[in-house]
Write a structure and sequence with these properties.
- The structure holds 2 protein chains of 2 kinds.
- By secondary structure, chain A is mostly helical.
- Chain A contains 9 helices and no strands.
- Chain A starts with a helix and ends with a helix.
- Chain B is mostly beta strands.
- Chain B has a 5-stranded mixed beta sheet, with no helix packed on it.
- Residues about 1-45 of chain B have low confidence and may be disordered.
- Classes of the chains: A mainly alpha, B mainly beta.
- Chains A and B meet through helix 2, helix 4, helix 5, helix 6 and helix 8 of A and helix 1 of B.
């Protein structure tokens, strides 16, 4: 049911649809919970999660957490953007929560190898707080991050391995 | 999990990237002119005001492991609740009052005994009615944004979301089909950091609304770091308390009618100081020190220059290092032994900014006649086990029969504490 859009092997080849592979189960649980409750507004996902029981949510997140991590983007990197993105990551300390290898933990997602379009959109949505995080931390973290930085970060993190 | 080594962060990152470029053909396709600088990546710039990392020491492995703890989104099944592990003084009993409600936070009791509970990570306000041993729950409002704060006054339920206050009149008669809450006040900042609220109606029939300091340790504008009060129709807002960092619980002394509030101290100064505070307001406009001075006697190393702690009102009690005292009430019931009359019960949510966790309990503060604190006792323990939370207490509330409710946002449950021969909850 999920894999038709999100990809059989944890890797999504559908524009704007995130790869789900390699995510910590607690993070997945929080997201499908937010979809079910309507606290994260993505109409298609709100529909998919409607009516799921608490046990369904746990079972889903546990089984999706077994998907392999997505392969990083094979598209050619722009060296200048890579350079700027690395400086951004240091400046904003992304890897202190997301891990040095950007693989996430507990309620913090893996971002390494995520789709570039999805990363850019997510960062913008967190920055404007149109996507409400579970605890509101990302809205604060992205305060000083510029749109140009977001584009560079998405470019780099999608290719990160 | 991988420990973080901040001091070597920038160097490690550079060498990691160098390693990547050798191993991954994709990234090595770089023109020679775009060689990354051999120097470590740019020094970290100023963090945004609300960042949870403000003040975290660089290069300290123990510090790097600490981060705010997010509760599970789903409530625990009733048979998994830790109630049998919770310890109270002799003569007291504890039972589960309600469970299966996600992220139970602030508590209020209506005139008819309806229990209302707010939430910080959910979007609903829930009402619980217990009759003849049966529990009915109602969703009185949903689609709200962090509706943590609740107040009940003259039949009306007041709800505080992150940045607006609304109300439902005669709420206990419309539980089955409640109207959408009416917004009465929205002139509030929208910061996530310390933005979630506790509210209460005072003896002056005004609604008290805090606005937290918008970050761990930051200077802020005149609209933050304060407690305001407004008329029950949302008009006439005025600031009554300054220098407040983050309060999630307050109540008025039954006799003197003075406001007492819990206040969470800053993080990342040390494991042990500053302690959190219990503060007492004796006059409008008092300033309790944040961010210049903490715990009454500790000038902030960054912002305290040019200030003296003597400029500010010190706390009447220190409530423990990072213990996160949240909900508090004066005990005014007739069930508990006399010594608890007019004492303050404080739920300590428990620390995240300490290697050895502290709190996860309920403490009682006994007052002198002059309103200062005479002594304190730990009242309920058991939420901390092997340095991990098996529950986290958030708010206390007194029921008409003098029993005490306690919310646990980790498990999504509410417990009821009684004294004397165990009685079934609710008639």
């Amino acid at each position: 049911m999920c894999l038709a859009c999100h990809g059989e092997k944890g890797q999504s080849s559908t524009p704007d649809v995130p790869s789900l592979g390699g995510q910590p189960a607690p993070y997945l649980l929080i997201q499908i919970y937010l979809f079910r409750e309507g606290q994260r507004a993505v109409p298609l996902m709100n529909e998919m999660a409607k009516g799921l029981s608490d046990d369904d949510l746990r079972a889903l997140s546990d089984s999706l957490a077994k998907l392999p991590a997505p392969a990083p983007s094979a598209e050619a990197p722009d060296p200048a953007r890579i350079e700027r993105a690395r400086a951004s990551i240091t400046r904003h300390r992304c890897n202190t929560c997301h891990n040095l290898d950007l693989s996430g933990r507990d309620n913090i997602p893996r971002i390494a190898g995520q789709r570039e379009d999805y990363l850019a959109r997510t960062l913008r949505e967190y920055k404007s707080n149109t996507r409400h995080g579970y605890d509101g931390v990302m809205a604060e973290v992205l305060g000083p991050v510029t749109d140009a930085e977001i584009a560079d970060l998405a470019h780099y993190i999608a290719r990160f391995r | 999990m991988t420990p973080y080594r901040l001091r070597r962060n920038s160097v490690l990152l550079s060498s990691t990237i160098a390693g990547l470029m050798m191993a991954a053909p994709v990234l090595s396709q770089q023109p020679a002119s775009a060689q990354p600088a051999a120097a470590p990546a740019a020094a970290p710039a100023a963090l945004p005001p609300g960042s949870p990392l403000i003040g975290r020491p660089e290069g300290n492995e123990a510090a790097a492991k600490l981060a705010p703890v997010a509760p599970p989104p789903l409530p625990a099944p009733a048979d998994k609740l830790p109630v049998s592990k919770l310890k109270l003084p002799p003569g007291f009993n504890i039972e589960v009052y309600a469970s299966g409600i996600a992220n139970t936070r602030s508590l209020r009791v209506g005139t008819k005994g309806t229990v209302f509970v707010g939430t910080r990570f959910g979007n609903k306000v829930t009402a619980i009615v217990r009759k003849d041993g049966k529990v009915e729950t109602y969703t009185v409002a949903q689609g709200l944004y962090r509706p943590n704060g609740l107040a009940f006054h003259n039949g009306t339920l007041y709800i505080a979301e992150l940045s607006q206050i609304s109300k439902i009149d005669n709420v206990e008669s419309v539980l089955d089909n409640p109207p959408k809450p009416t917004v009465i006040y929205s002139d509030l900042p929208k910061d996530e950091a310390h933005g979630w609220k506790f509210i209460g109606v005072g003896p002056d029939n005004k609604l008290y609304v805090p606005v937290g300091q918008p970050g761990n340790n930051v200077l802020h504008d005149k609209d933050h770091g304060q407690i305001r009060r407004i008329n029950l129709d949302g008009t006439g807002a005025e600031v009554v308390v300054l220098g407040m960092r983050n309060t999630v619980g307050f109540d008025w002394h039954p006799k003197t009618h003075e406001l007492y509030f819990s206040d969470n101290g800053r993080d990342w100064m040390s494991e042990d100081v500053p302690q959190d505070e219990l503060n007492r307001v004796t006059a409008t406009g008092q300033d309790f020190g944040a961010p210049y001075c903490y715990q009454g006697n500790l000038p902030d190393p960054e912002f305290g220059w040019g200030h003296a702690c003597s400029e500010f009102v010190p706390p009447v009690a220190l409530t423990g290092p990072h213990s996160a005292g949240l909900g508090m009430r004066f005990y005014t019931g007739k069930m508990f032994p006399a010594k608890y009359q007019n004492a303050i019960f404080l739920a300590r949510h428990g620390s995240w900014n300490r290697s050895k966790k502290f709190g996860g309990d309920v403490v009682v503060y006994f007052l002198n006649k002059d309103g200062t604190v005479k002594s304190s006792e730990v009242f309920l323990t058991g939420f901390l086990e092997n340095n991990s939370y098996i529950g986290r207490p958030v708010d206390v509330e007194i029921m008409a029969d003098g029993s005490m409710l306690l919310s646990d946002d980790w498990n999504g449950a509410i417990y009821r504490i009684t004294y004397g021969k165990p009685k079934a909850a609710g008639k």
